[in-house]
Write a structure and sequence with these properties.
This protein is of the alpha/beta class. The chain is globular and about 100 Å long. 56% of the residues are buried. The strands form eight sheets. A ten-stranded mixed sheet has the order 13-14-15-12-11-16-17-33-27-26, sandwiched between helices. A six-stranded mixed sheet has the order 8-7-6-9-10-18, with helices on both faces. The chain has a five-stranded parallel sheet with strand order 30-29-28-31-32, sandwiched between helices. The structure holds 1,4-dihydronicotinamide adenine dinucleotide. The site of 1,4-dihydronicotinamide adenine dinucleotide has 26 residues, from helix 9, helix 10 and helix 13. It comes from Paracoccus lutimaris. GO terms for molecular function: oxidoreductase activity, acting on the aldehyde or oxo group of donors, NAD or NADP as acceptor. Belongs to the aldehyde dehydrogenase family.
């Protein structure tokens, strides 16, 4: 009785530890160490490194450091298994994935406990969030395998996927990568993070038990060096990486020009915006789910709270009170809210960033944490927007809190980051919430909620948070190749243009010099030089010789034309119809221009006709290429919106001087992007003639900018430009490699191909693929009901 009174008196929970016996037994069975999982079996352990339980510091397993020979063996096994796997019917692959999902389900408790022991996350999270989402992901993608042939006609798997994942959601990140890859008919070589390799190895055992054909899934353990051996391996066709932005950048450079497909899911510094009319108690719980979930080691964690000034004091007080109730400690204890930090190295990193913040004048508010590899829940006030804690990804339970005055301020602060993974918006006013969601530059926005995930909705970032999506149709599509045609004769680099002073030209026999077209106006090239454009019978004109400065001006002009992306699709369509009509009215003149380059009469006529039709086609798509509403959780709508990428650089192929330009620029602007286009270097005059048509068609200044000159150096400037959001390059193989490598700076999306590979007059030059490439999907989660 006394005992009961005591409990009622202090209302504390008694200890409720999760039983870890099954995991301890499993680890004991593997005391000799783990090898790699290659070709359906485990290799002998070699070059072992220790894996520890971060909550206790004890060594729990020894795992092999993958060497080049291991990676070779895994890639070889994956390569051998892939054709047979891809040749199975979608239905047969689906049955394998269903079986795998069911087997994972049967081992759910074991996996949850193992994850918690390996990673340090609270058992409540691994049991209720990580593992159920893993299972959901396999089931969902089993479904994609079943219907793939109908849903993605003509698409084929990439082949062998090299996948490298982080330690924050070890098994969930594996599921996000492996499930779509296998569903699509690829085979996989995956490397888990060195701190947390155990659930991946357990899953390998489960895959074997579930009868997954050997070689389809291979797991090689090791550190970053092993990771680099996988991503750089010649036998890999697609690389998928989740981890830090720094490593994402290294991989981008490492594989530039290799022809490997790439998706990157990188860091974040996501805003969490609380408006004055928000339900403040709910918003405080949102912070708990956002930054104090998984010890804050979450790429999409809301790590910057922006709160309306009028409620900032009240919100801070509520947050502070809630923070004090959080229990940090033993991850296996069912009442623990915050578990262990994954590794002492990560703990040291969190501490040093917080100390840097303190030195910069930040006020640190903290809850409690035991000694060991734990860090207390923390919020930080008095942080300047440019300070360390407001800009660096801490990857710990540390959030900044900054007041704002107006919604515009909130958006400006929210977007004041190089990242763009996620955001959370709290307001009882749905108009305001969706307006803000639309204005935040990020791939996922949660309204009055935080950190919701579902296999049916795409997840992934804008800007330096990476590109590509995981989950949903977009995620599946990233594991499929929409076969790019092969060039019969690859595009070769044309001779460098010979600079001619612009002044000298009037006197020459050549009739006129085409200027550049920047911000809706003709512009003299900064260099003061032009170059002769060769025709069938000698030079047919002069084009401006653009340089870096011209590109910078063009990018600036494109940036200013912000109105285009927010116009209705209907308005954009009207402008593009008008453009098509105006080109149609001048068809003969354009045909003549193409003939002057040496095109035959009929080829020239066809190119102009198709160009006109293509403009109409993209005009028609401007208000039809829609997003989707996903079925995710109950009482939610998840709006998948196709948004423009922003400012795009487009380097056009040399052949098809008019049609090449139209085929690339039109889908981009139809979707609301602004463009800096580099037309055919050899025959730029068809594109420069077009600016007169653009001018008379009500295309706002700055939406299309044209810089003529030597294509590759200009493309390089575009690739390196931090204010360019995406680059399409259709030229030589060497140019494509350069463009991919040079784009690593701000991790802009690229689409680089041999300019001669496509027959631009056919369906290869037009279609939804171009629209998909010209947009990025933002998923907005909107809860409804109570
Ligand atoms: P990391 O990016 O170095 O590691 C992620 C994975 O990449 C691991 O499997 C690692 O072995 C592998 N890797 C490392 N170097 C590689 C290379 N050159 N080529 C191929 N694979 C390579 O992240 P790390 O060092 O564990 O954490 C450092 C910081 O990165 C964290 O504090 C956090 O800010 C951020 N991070 C972000 C994650 C996200 O999901 N956005 C996940 C993990 C870390």
């Amino acid at each position: 009785m006394n005992k009961i009174m005591e409990v009622l008196d202090n209302m504390e929970y008694g200890p409720a530890p999760e039983d870890s016996a099954i995991v301890r037994d499993w680890l004991a069975c593997h005391e000799a160490g783990f090898g790699h999982f290659i070709d359906g079996g485990f290799t002998k352990p070699s070059d072992p490194f220790e894996v520890t339980n971060p909550a206790t510091g004890k060594v729990i397993a020894r795992v092999s450091q993958g060497a080049a020979t291991d990676v070779d063996a895994a890639v070889k096994a994956a390569r051998a298994a892939q054709p047979k796997w891809a040749a199975l019917s979608g239905h047969d692959r689906a049955r394998h994935l269903y079986a795998l999902a069911r087997h994972i389900q049967q081992h759910a408790r074991f996996l949850a406990v193992l994850e918690t022991i390996d990673n340090g996350k609270p058992i409540r999270e691994s049991r209720d969030i990580d593992i159920p989402l893993v299972i959901r992901h396999f089931y969902h993608h089993a479904g994609w395998a079943e219907i793939m042939a109908d849903e993605f006609p003509g698409a084929t798997p990439h082949g062998v996927c090299g996948q490298v994942i982080p330690w924050n959601f070890p098994l969930l990140m594996l599921a996000w990568k492996v499930a779509p890859a296998l569903a699509a008919g690829n085979s996989v070589v995956l490397k888990p993070a060195e701190y947390t390799p155990l659930t991946a190895l357990a899953l390998a055992e489960i895959a074997r038990e579930a009868g997954l054909p050997k070689g389809v899934l291979n797991i090689v353990t090791g550190d970053g060096e092993t990771g680099a051996l996988i991503t750089g391996h010649d036998g890999i066709d697609k690389v998928a990486f989740t981890g830090s932005t720094e490593v994402g950048r290294l991989i981008r450079r490492q594989i530039a020009g290799s022809g490997k497909a790439l998706t990157l899911e990188l860091g974040g510094k996501s805003p969490f915006i609380v408006f004055a009319d928000a339900d403040l108690d709910a918003a405080v719980e949102g912070v708990v789910d956002s930054i104090w979930f998984n010890q804050g080691q979450v790429c999409c964690a809301g790590s910057r709270i922006l709160v309306a000034e009028s409620v900032a004091a009240r919100f801070t007080e509520l947050l502070s009170r809630r923070m004090e109730t959080l229990i940090t400690g033993d991850p296996l204890e069912k009442s623990t809210d915050i578990g262990a930090i994954v590794h002492p190295v990560q703990l040291a990193r969190i501490r040093s960033l917080v100390e840097r913040g303190r030195a910069e004048g930040a006020q640190i508010h903290q809850g409690s944490a035991p000694s060991g590899c734990f860090y207390p829940p923390t919020f930080v006030t008095e942080v300047e927007p440019a300070s360390t804690l407001a800009t660096e990804e801490v990857f710990g339970p540390v959030v900044t809190l900054t007041p704002f005055r107006t919604p515009e301020d909130a958006v400006a602060l929210a977007n004041n980051t190089r990242y763009g993974l996620a955001g959370s918006v709290w307001s009882e006013n749905i108009n305001l919430a969706i307006d803000i969601a639309a204005k935040i530059k990020a791939g996922v926005i949660w309204i009055n909620s935080a950190n919701l995930f579902d296999a049916g909705a795409g997840f992934g970032g804008y800007r330096e948070s990476g590109f590509g999506r995981e989950g949903g149709r977009e995620g599946m599509s990233a594991y499929l190749r929409h076969p790019a045609p092969r060039a019969k004769k690859p595009e070769t680099a044309p001779p460098a243009p010979v600079a001619t002073p612009v002044e000298g030209m009037a006197a020459s026999a050549i009739d006129r010099t085409a200027k550049l077209y920047i911000g809706g106006k003709q512009a003299r090239p900064d260099s003061g030089y032009s170059y002769a454009v060769a025709g069938a019978k000698g030079p047919v004109g002069l084009a401006g010789l653009g340089n870096r400065k011209d590109i910078r001006n063009a990018v600036e002009a494109a940036h200013k034309a912000t109105g285009w992306g927010v116009q209705t699709g209907h308005n954009r369509a009207q402008v593009l119809y008008y453009l098509a009509e105006n080109l149609s009215a001048r068809a003969e003149e354009f045909t003549g221009r193409l003939k002057s380059f040496g095109h035959s009469g009929s080829a020239a006529k066809t190119e102009v006709e198709i160009s006109i039709r293509r403009i109409f086609w993209y005009a028609a798509q401007a208000d039809k290429f829609d997003g989707a509403v996903h079925q995710t959780k109950s009482a939610h709508v998840t709006l998948a919106m196709n948004e423009p990428l922003g400012v795009m650089g487009i380097a056009c192929p040399n052949a098809y001087p008019l049609l090449g330009f139209v085929s690339l620029v039109l889908p981009a602007i139809a979707m609301g992007n602004r463009v800096v286009a580099l037309p055919s270097q050899t025959h730029p005059l068809a594109a420069t003639d077009l600016y007169q048509v653009i001018d008379t068609s009500d295309v706002p200044g700055g939406v299309v900018n044209i810089v003529t000159g030597e294509r590759d150096p200009l493309a390089k400037t575009l690739a390196e430009h931090d204010d360019v959001d995406a680059l399409w390059y259709f030229g030589t193989a060497a140019g494509a490699a350069m463009a991919e490598a040079a784009s690593a700076g701000n991790l802009k999306q690229t689409w680089c191909e041999d300019g001669a590979a496509r027959d631009w007059t056919t369906a290869q030059g037009q279609g939804r693929q171009f629209l998909t490439r010209a947009t990025q999907v933002k998923n907005i989660w909107v809860p409804h009901g109570e």
